[in-house]
Amino acid sequence: MPVFATKSRPVAPAKPPKSAKPAPAAKPPVTQVRQLARLLERWSAPPDGGEVEVVPSGAPPLDAALADGGFRRGWLVEWLAAGRGAGAGALALLAAREACRTGGALVIIDRGGTFYPPALAAWGVDLSRTIVALPATPRDEAWAIDQALRCPHTAAVLATPRSVDGRNFRRWQLAAEATGALGLLLRPAAARSEPTWAVVRMQVTPHGAQPLFPVATGLPLSAAWRLQIELLRSRGRLHARTLQVELDSRTGSCHETNTRRVVAELAAAAPGHQTA
Amino acid sequence: MPNWPLQRLAIKQPELTAAPVALYAPSRRGQAITACCAAATAAGLRPDMPLAEATVLLEAAARAPGKSRVADSLRESSRVAGDVAQRSPQLRRSGNSLRSPPVTPAFHLLPHDQAADRTALEKLAQWCHRFSPSVGWEMAEGAQQGNAPDALLLDGTKLGPLFGGEAAWAAAVAAGLQRLGLHARIAVADTPAAALAVVKFPIKPRPLVAETPANEYRVAGDERSEPPERRNWGLRCAASPATPFPPPAIIPPGDSRTALAPLPPAALRLSPPLVETLQHLGIGCVGQLLALPRDQLQTRLGPEVLWRVDQAMGRSDEPLHTVPAPPQATAERLLEFPLADRGLIEQIVGQLIDQLAWQLARRSAGALAVTCRLECVEAPPAEFTAGLYQPTADPRQIGEVIAMHLERLRLPGPVEAAAVTAARTARLGEQQRSLFDGQERPHKSPQLAGLVNRLTSRLGAGQVVRYRLQRDPQPEHAFRREPLIDTPPSGHAQPATRKPPSRRRAAPAPLLASSATTTPAPPTAAPLDRPWQVLAAPQPLEVLAIAPEGPPARFRFAGEDHQIVRHWGPERIETGWQRRRMIRRDYYRVETATGVRAWLFRRRGDGAWFLHGWFD
Which of A61, A259, B240, B534 is the most buried (most CB within 10 A)? Predict the structure, then answer.
């Protein structure tokens, strides 16, 4: 710091006597410092600045909970499903659909060959712009995800890797950052304890039906599916947050659970508690 | 009047179509006109006219209407193509008088490049290999007489049935040439000579076409018949849709005599002195010549007449001067010492790919499948074929795909020779790099094509697919998988672990189509009607508590108990009797007490319950 302080006055008179040669030698430090300062500035700025496009997640409540108002291209996003039939895939499909809206291809890396295309189409995924790779081994799967993320015209990569080693994860992260592809990873809840390189990680749990419901069904219940999203990790929000969302069965849209209607339904379902 | 040179120029320099064009070349009497378009002909130009005379004629024609019109017509050059069709009859009507037509744009007098004509015709002949296995061009006699060949001969022996009749075959050729912007006259006849005569002298055959309409004939497929094409003038007509392509003249087998009768004797390709002699004798058409006694023809006119007549009638054979088909692009290297080091082998293959790519680029073709063959010492050769998603001549893309196959290849022994061949090629599409590349047309993206190439080479040909929906009540068959690259199965080096999925179609998958071109059967289902992950096959369920109607109240799957609290359904799905295994199922979507959703069905035959998928 003293060097900088003396630079303006006391050093200036001292410089001329030093002849021509030291002068250029004295200047480089200044430019170097400036360069360093610029570099520092770049480092301290948010890594993706303001230019990187934000893609809505397809679930407005989730967008509201994320600091960026959605997913930025080049991110890895992880959904952890609490078990089979937990509905995490629906949210991933919504995000995939939104990511491909402005062009680019959706690449699905489907190791088990379990994705069911008619359902994808029903969720609005354009199958004509979807490339599906069916790797046989986890190694091939990791490689395929990496390749797909590295392709500049991939809008999103949807994959269901079970266990991921750190090296692969880091590689995917770099690949996605380089090309701006959105990596959507659907993983089991067991992955919760594993380290992650994803920017957003959330766990999806279905909201259990209320015990008040009689087993007898056929009631005019809303067919909406209530899910609970636990944001375990996201940029800008350090605290875990829990969201309650509903998936509309007809339109597939996702919105916040309307608590008032839930209460009304509960009341309707339990005749003995009409006053509740 | 060979106007092939003009057609070639018109394609190369479309701006020439706006004005009269004439070509000149040195001749015995100095520079002389060799070819002129119809507009130039109307202005009085004739082949063999000295260049100076032609220049004067054209200048006179250009000056007469006033200079301002010249400028106008040049500005309107885009419209000219359409105009000419109207204008040229007018010109013809006004005869050869030097009175200029109403609009005469500036003219072009260009040197004639015969070598380029020949090369272009050779290229066209190679292109014509798609219609016939042997393509020849006009005999060399034409060249001796000073005019370059301007006709191609396609051997159509037994090709008719493949195209659905000879008329259809000729039509296919015509359509192909029209797409190239060329104007051809096509005839199918028993002998090359007869066909050449009909196309070269098209003035007379009009009555012939009238009396024998082409489409009424069903030509026996085993007849040897060849349609030569000749590009007549058509410099403008080719560009203007107003002028129809002349219908191919099809001479039925054994009918050459009738067809040739009205043509002048020159149609038989007799030498000019002989034609002159015949003219003096008062023989004006082939019919008259054929009526003469044969032995007298021989003694009075010499052997040439009989030779040509026999060729036309099919009594003597005529060799076809074939143009070789474009050879497969291939690069190979014989090694002095057998190599076992993989790195070196890969390096050599890389060099071969560079050579191959260069060959491909030179003929503006792209490889769709590349075969790599490594000859091994005392062992069967290792050979594999790698498919590519888009035709490419990029050594990097080809190399990437080959390298992936190569790294998994088990070499049976040291390699002593290596060869890389483009097994399937396609025309290389022009790829324009747009500013927002990939945003508008992702299916054209070379990067995506590269991704598909890489994925396919490592995962296997049937493992990179696109889904297409199809209307089928059975959920398992509501879609089909289309491999994006179809590689012909090759015996070697295909990874044994891959099990190819049931492939329904063998045709190569089209490009990743834009959404406009592929409209799958519209999904009628709501998003939550079908699970997005299904089990490979429906799994039987252990039902713990049955309900009188609807799904079971409790079931057990994979050791876990599930209590159903809500359900939607049944959705009855039945396949028709025509299916070998008829399917009758009642599907339910159920939600369990934990909120988990699943897709179950009851087999209606025996009431057994199955789980088909989870709403993961």
Answer: B534
**By the 8 A CB rule, do B195 and B228 touch?**
yes
Residue linked to tokens 């034409």: B142
The CATH number that domain A52-269 falls under is 3.40.50.300
Sequence letter at residue A147: Q
CA distance A247 to chain B (A): 9
- Domain edges within chain A: 52-269
- In the predicted model, residues of chain B with pLDDT beneath 70 are 1-22, 25-30, 38-39, 42, 47, 62-107, 138-149, 202-248, 325-326, 429-444, 486-524
Q: B533 CB near a chain A CB, below 8 Å?
A: yes
Q: Does the pLDDT value for residue A106 go beyond 70?
A: yes
User: Could you read off the pLDDT of A17-48 as tens digits, one per residue?
Assistant: 444 444 444 556 777 888 888 777 766 655 55
Contact call for A132 and B535, based on CB within 8 A: no
* CB contacts, 8 Å: A107 with chain B: 451
Task: Express each pLDDT in A75-92 by its tens digit.
Answer: 999 999 988 888 899 999
Buried b (16+ CB within 10 A) or exposed e, B413-441: bbbbbbbbbbbbbbebeeeeeeeebbeee
Q: CA–CA separation, B604 vs B204, rounded Å?
A: 77
Q: Report the residue from B450, B520, B566 with minimal CB separation from A209.
A: B566
B176 and B131 Cβ atoms separated by less than 8 Å: yes
Give the gap in angstroms from C-alpha B514 to the nearest C-alpha of chain A.
7
Contact present, B125 and B137 (Cβ < 8 Å): yes
Please give the pLDDT value at position A213.
46
What percent of chain A is predicted at pLDDT more than 70? Answer: 73
Partner-chain residue, chosen from B445, B533, B595, that has the shortest CB–CB distance to A209: B595
List the one residue out of A181, A176, A129, A152 whose CA is nearest residue B436: A152
- Mean pLDDT for chain B overall: 70
Strand partners, B382: B374
**Per-residue DSSP letters for A165-231?**
-HHHHHHHHHHHHHHTPEEEEEEEGGGGGS----SEEEEEEE-PPPTTS-S---------EEEEEEE
For the CA atoms of B246, B247, B253, B254, what is the dihedral angle to 10 degrees? Answer: -50
**B151-154 and B228-230 beta bridge pairing:** antiparallel
CB of B476 within 8 Å of any CB in chain A? no
Examine the pLDDT at A175 and tell me if it is beyond 70: yes
- Order the strands of the A130-133 sheet from edge to edge: A254-256, A241-247, A225-233, A200-206, A76-81, A182-188, A154-159, A105-109, A130-133, B464-469, B479-483
CB B566 within 8 A of CB A213: yes
Smallest Cα distance from B472 to chain A, Å = 11
Per residue in A232-253, pLDDT (tens digit) is: 888 776 667 888 888 887 777 8
Query: Which residues of chain A from 69 to 88 reach within 8 Å of chain B, CB to CB?
Result: 81, 83-88
What percent of chain B has pLDDT above 70?
A: 67
Tokens encoding A152: 């500049």
Residue A93 distance to chain B (closest CA, Å): 9
Q: List own/partner pairs for B70-75 with CB under 8 A and 24 or more apart.
A: B70/B104, B70/B105, B70/B106, B72/B103, B73/B18, B73/B103, B73/B104, B73/B105, B74/B18, B74/B19, B74/B105, B74/B106
The pLDDT of residue B215: 30
Residue B389 CA: distances (Å) to CA of B186, B407, B445, B469, B509: 37, 20, 11, 22, 9
Q: Label residue A52 left, alpha or beta by phi (over 0 means left) and psi (-120 to 50 means alpha).
A: beta
